[in-house]
């Protein structure tokens, strides 16, 4: 959750939603709300567990998280 008067806290989530919309939303039509919600849930799973990210050293978010936990 963002701190009061600290809009920069929201940057990572804004970036995530931008990526989701670019990769899965734009150009598509959803017939009902449940289909849209399912797409978002599936994308969150993909983003965390399968999508490789250069800024994480070509790892998934979960792989980077596990490395961090092992180091702690």
Automatic annotation (TrEMBL):
SUPFAM superfamilies reported in the protein's UniProt record: Ribonuclease H-like (SSF53098)
Organism superkingdom: Bacteria
InterPro entries in the record: Integrase_cat-core (IPR001584), RNaseH-like_sf (IPR012337), Transposase_IS3/IS150/IS904 (IPR050900)
Domain Integrase catalytic: 14-63
Pfam families xrefs: rve_2
GO annotation, biological process: DNA integration
Classification via PANTHER family: TRANSPOSASE INSF FOR INSERTION SEQUENCE IS3B-RELATED, TRANSPOSASE INSO FOR INSERTION SEQUENCE ELEMENT IS911B-RELATED
Name of the protein in question: Integrase catalytic domain-containing protein
Source organism (scientific name): Mediterraneibacter gnavus (strain ATCC 29149 / DSM 114966 / JCM 6515 / VPI C7-9)
